[in-house]
Amino acid sequence: MVDVTSKPATQRSAAAHAFVRMQRSTVASLRRLKNPKGNPLEIARIAGITAAKRASELIPLCHPLSLTHVDVRAELCQNGVEITSEATVTGPTGVEMEALVGAAVAALTIYDMCKALERGMEITDLHLVSKSGGRSGTYLRRAARARKSGR
Questions:
Q1: Which value, in Å, is the radius of gyration of the alpha carbons in the chain?
Q2: Closest CA to 52 of 87, 26, 93, 3
Q3: Using an 8 Å Cβ cutoff, are 92 and 9 in contact?
Q4: pLDDT value at residue 36
């Protein structure tokens, strides 16, 4: 594990994205909340938050962080579920892994809860959207920069 003892505690945040691609009929079932296991969007939100808080237990050499905020959103779209995960901390190291783990586990939860409806779903587009704070400063994924500037 990297020694962060001498690094100052600063406010750091990160956002990540994932997508669960599914058939329109599966999306329609989710819109009607016709799912044998309950509401996958809400369960995925809770699973993602829980996972972000436990990232250091899942990723070897990942620092355990006392997160000050975690938010995971799972939203239905035309061809699947879009997931956004955000994490914030005041500490000596960043929260990119926490945001990514939150998005990944939320996507896996959607798959688990919907597999009775469709086994061919795909989890795609897991990536870091942005991060701020720390020595390396701000990162904003190129596609996110283009949307932000109105392109």
A1: 17
A2: 87
A3: yes
A4: 67
The end-to-end CA distance of the chain, in Å, is: 40
Specify the amino acid at residue 127: H
Tell me the one-letter amino acid at 67: L
Q: What is the pTM assigned to this prediction?
A: 0.91
Task: Show the tokens assigned to 133.
Answer: 């704070």
* Given the residues 3, 71, 112, 125, the one annotated as active site: 112
Question: How far is 108 from 6, CA to CA, in rounded Å?
Answer: 37
**Residue 112 bears catalytic tag:** yes
Average pLDDT, the chain: 91
Contacts of 47 (CB under 8 A, 6+ apart): 105, 106, 108, 109
The phi-psi region of residue 129 (left if phi > 0; otherwise alpha if psi is between -120 and 50; otherwise beta) is alpha
Quick: pLDDT tens for 61-82. 999 999 999 999 999 999 999 9
The two beta strands, 122-132 and 139-140, are antiparallel
81-92 pLDDT, tens digit per residue, is 999 999 999 999
Q: Cβ(128)–Cβ(97) under 8 Å? A: no
